[in-house]
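Illustration 12: Tol-Pal system protein TolB.
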Amino acid sequence: MSLSPAQLLRAAALIVALFGLAALAPAARAQVNIDINQGNVQPLPIAIPAFLGQGGDAELARNIASVVEADLKRSGLFAPIDHKAFIEKITNTDAAPRFGDWRIINAQALVTGRVVRQGDGRLRTEFRLWDVFAGNQLDGQQFFTDKNWRRVAHLIADMIYERLTGEKGYFDTRVVYVDESGPKDKRVKRLAIMDQDGFNVRYITGGDELVLTPRFSPTSQEITYMSFGRAEPRVYLLNIETGQREVVGNFPGMTFSPRFSPDGQKVIMSLQQGGDSNLYAMDLRSRTTTRLTDSGAIDTSPSYSPDGSQIVFESDRGGNQQIYVMSASGGGAQRISFGQGRYSTPVWSPRGDLIAFTKQSGGKFAIGVMKPDGSGERILTEGFHNEGPTWAPNGRVLMFFRDQGGGPRIYSVDVTGRNEQRIPTPGFASDPAWSPPLN
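Figure caption equivalent — predicted structure in token form:
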């Protein structure tokens, strides 16, 4: 079910409290954790029984637990245990579980929870995270909401992920993408937005003009994108919540690949003039534009480093498409890609440790990562046509789109390359862009 921007605002506003449960004393240091910096991470066995709920809320409680379980499983770091193996039936979330029953089935962590309907109609969702082998509670929180129960589930999954890995989760996020429909030679393209798991899809443009390359601001729920209407192509800013849209500026020639700076105060883009394409940065407050490259080549797809000091981009200045890094103020650029094939669409990780890219070689398109100095190149996935990587805000997962014939679909893959999954969308989908955390 899709929600209007106003409904989303009201639902988000109703998540009004986030408190530690006071029933139990603060937990001891966790004995159970996942070291995600290891080269080969074994998924952590975790048990997530259905949350408790009364009357008509019983199904909703089960649904919340199911979304939490699905989020954690999809990360590739957790292995939820089949409910049929459970020995203890959780009937009271205020009491400590029978840890021995959970050790028998090799559960290392356990999540219990309940949903309680308040007198004013709101839902109070509580959860507790238990270290099964240490026999203590690791975390416990409660949320109040009106109707946005899926977001509550994502928030719970984020807290479990952070508590057990030591890094921020990425489940309470959204993805904007280009929805594609119609025959291949007459595709209608409109902007759509969804939760990171593919639910709550809604459309934010009408399809009466061609839209390309949506990109999220790192600091707000705003996007920048290209639109081809009846006039020249334009770069727009769009507030996801209010629907307010404004033109970034009118530029001569074609404009490509607009993307925000880390502080959200600038947009960097590629402008075509004649046969060349150079990089420009625009200050969104003063609307002043600064030219950054003048290479006599095609420079495009720029992306800032997380600290805003450098820019990675693709250029054919060396004869074919390769990846270069330079200062954010312009100047000399250093080539960092030297493998076989052509490299494009580089995107700097929010962690700063990796740059994702598309690589075309031997008739295949691959999604890969390398360090900012070009070392450590690794291919995560390859196929007939993969393109357009975008990072989760914690820098551990990428989304991209793949067209295997017929139309594009969105996929995700983690930085190990072992956990690839398709993200469900109502129709064909391309150019995904991940939002910053919503909370």
